Amino acid sequence: MNIAVFASGRGSNFEAILSAIHRGNLPARVCVVISNNSGAGALEVARTRNIPGYHISQRQFPSEDAFVAKTISVLQDHNVDFVALAGYMKKLSPKLIGRYRNRIANVHPALLPAFGGPGMYGIRVHEAVLQSGVKVTGATVHLVDEEYDRGPIVMQKIVAVSPTDTPVTLAAKVLEIEHEIYPLALKAFAEKRIRIQGNTVWIQ
Asked: 87-120: string of b/e by CB count within 10 Å (b at 16+)?
């Protein structure tokens, strides 16, 4: 399975995916990395691994359509089968989602549908979790549709919230879970063990 990774930041989930591939736990390859941030650490990781990396930002193009067309063109040029969002801080266009329907995944640092939606990313999620008083949180791998964090859930794992947790310590605990379940979910797609019925995903 040829994976395109979309990332805006340092790319720790990207590195977790690469590690799983290297260990033989994920029968896939990352064939291209796309970022809307020219300074993204993920692009540097791609360079060190000799993976093609592209900075594609809407500001480089005269219109949204041109931006989307360029992105799709790069995906086609690299024969991409699946798109893995790894901290990509831009909402995908309906046209791109439609072209790769049920072949785009994201990992979210909470147990969706709780603590998701517009504005719920990064440390904000963990602040909201602590303010709510819940006793557990975790990470969710989900398919991407036209709404933030609303696509069918593929995999989740929980972690306890400690009375001493801060947003920073909680983020670190959840990130470990992300690094664990994201490659596992991608493995299920690569091995064609995913069955989708409406808004429900089954792993066989």
From this structure: bbeeebbeebbeebebbbbbbbbbbbebbbeeeb
User: For residue 54, what pLDDT band results from cuts at 50, 70 and 90?
Assistant: very high
Nearest CA to 91 out of 32, 149, 175, 10 is that of 149
- Domains (ranges, CATH) in the chain? 1-100 (3.40.50.170), 106-204 (3.40.50.170)
Asked if 108 is an active-site residue, the reply is yes
Distance CA 55, CA 26 (A): 26
Q: Who's near 17: CB < 8 A, 6+ residues apart?
A: 3, 5, 26, 30, 84, 86, 182, 183, 186
Burial of 132 (0-12, 13-18, 19+ CB in 10 A): exposed
Q: Which of 108, 126, 142, 179 is catalytic?
A: 108
The pTM for the full model equals 0.96
Task: For residue 50, give both structure tokens.
Answer: 């000799």
How far is the C-alpha of 199 from the C-alpha of 204, rounded, in Å? 16
- The per-residue pLDDT for 46 is 97
pLDDT band at 175 (very low <50, low <70, confident <90, very high): very high
Three-class SS of 126-194: HHHHHHHCCCEEEEEEEECCCCCCCCCEEEEEEEECCCCCCHHHHHHHHHHHHHHHHHHHHHHHHCCCE
